[in-house]
Write a structure and sequence with these properties.
The protein is an alpha+beta fold. It has 15 helices and 6 strands.
């Protein structure tokens, strides 16, 4: 249970569930099938072994095969002689060239509702599955159900949070008619860059939120400056520069968002130390901020502004390369170029 509940990533929970099932039952392989309520089908979500991709193309009707029966009835099954059991569906073995000798199958229930089926196949050393195995396996299925439901709730909250952040960013953009779609593009570019840098999954999530909220501080900038249809005066530019500090202050009040503060606060820093708000240099600038900086600048260069026309993509790329090592981190620029060449930008 501890292994299952140590992550809230849905895919990881599902994979660990099948690994735990196989180890606990001392079985050759195992799988997790989930119920698609709309289609009234059962599909293979995780299947261990080299046949996984083939198995995942197979769907069962509720009531079809051992797994389908277990899903429909909500009851467990031990089948030590599948060929003698009329409920056994030979199609999976036929498609995968696998030989099912025996299997144990239990429903995965959340609030008494079957959401899937956990199965272990082929007890090692030619042995049969026993009632003792069934008791252990049913307990595991209960833990799997809790872990899956927790992961689902977490993902739903995460989606809702991202949508809220995007709505907030959209509201700020609507104050500035010249930056429509800017937030979405910066986020797209940042995530494309991230694929070519050694970021952990959690850092990619922080990057996504930092990209969405990088200009949130503009909520505190007066309309006459934000909407000015001409180049800003030095004094006005000084006011605009304050938006990164304002953004960091706003986000800092939300405990769960403190990891993205550096990405918001320092996305106008330059590796040569001539940026703002702190004049940080080189490695002192957080990586998230360096990524947002490249994305933000590329979008600014390739978008029409009231006082200048957009650069062509080629000219903007040339400018990014030219400023690599002075304004931008060279590795981030290289990652941007790779993403661009691969059609991700």
């Amino acid at each position: 249970g501890q292994i299952l509940n140590s992550t809230l990533e849905q895919q990881e929970v599902r994979k660990r569930a099948v690994e735990a099932a196989t180890q606990l039952m001392k079985a050759e392989t195992g799988s997790l099938l989930l119920v698609d309520e709309n289609k009234e089908k059962l599909y293979f979500e995780v299947a261990l072994g080299d046949k996984e991709e083939t198995i995942k193309t197979i769907t069962l009707d509720l009531g079809e095969g051992i797994a389908g029966w277990v899903a429909q009835k909500g009851k467990h099954l031990i089948v030590n002689s599948p060929k003698k059991d009329a409920r056994f569906y030979i199609g999976v073995d036929g498609r995968t060239k696998f030989k099912t000798r025996n299997l144990i199958c239990v429903p995965v229930k959340v609030k008494q509702k079957v959401i899937g089926v956990l199965e272990a196949v082929n007890k090692q050393d030619g042995a049969d599955f026993t009632e003792e195995d069934l008791s252990l396996f049913s307990s595991l299925a209960d833990q799997v159900a809790i872990a899956l439901d927790n992961a689902r709730l977490y993902q739903e909250q995460e989606v809702m949070f991202f949508q809220t952040a995007e709505s907030l960013a959209d509201a700020i953009e609507k104050r500035d008619p010249y930056t429509g779609g800017h937030t979405q593009r910066v986020t797209l570019y940042s995530l494309a860059i991230a694929r070519y840098l050694p970021l952990k999954p959690i850092e990619k999530k922080w990057l996504k939120i930092a990209s969405v909220l990088h200009d949130i501080g503009k909520i505190g900038i007066e309309d006459q400056i934000l909407k000015k249809p001409a180049q800003l005066s030095p004094e006005e530019y000084g006011v605009i520069k304050h938006h990164s500090d304002l953004g960091a202050e706003i986000i800092d009040h939300i405990r769960q968002l403190r990891d993205i503060v550096p990405g918001v606060k320092y996305h106008h820093e330059k590796v040569n130390g001539r940026g703002y708000p702190k004049g940080l240099k080189g490695e002192d600038i957080p990586l998230l901020a360096k990524i947002v900086s490249v994305s933000d600048t590329y979008d600014a260069m390739t978008t029409d502004r009231p006082y200048r026309k957009a650069l062509t993509k080629e000219a903007a790329l040339k400018e990014l390369k030219r400023c690599g090592g002075s304004q931008f981190d060279r590795k981030v620029v290289e990652a941007f170029m790779k993403a661009y060449r691969n059609g991700e930008i």
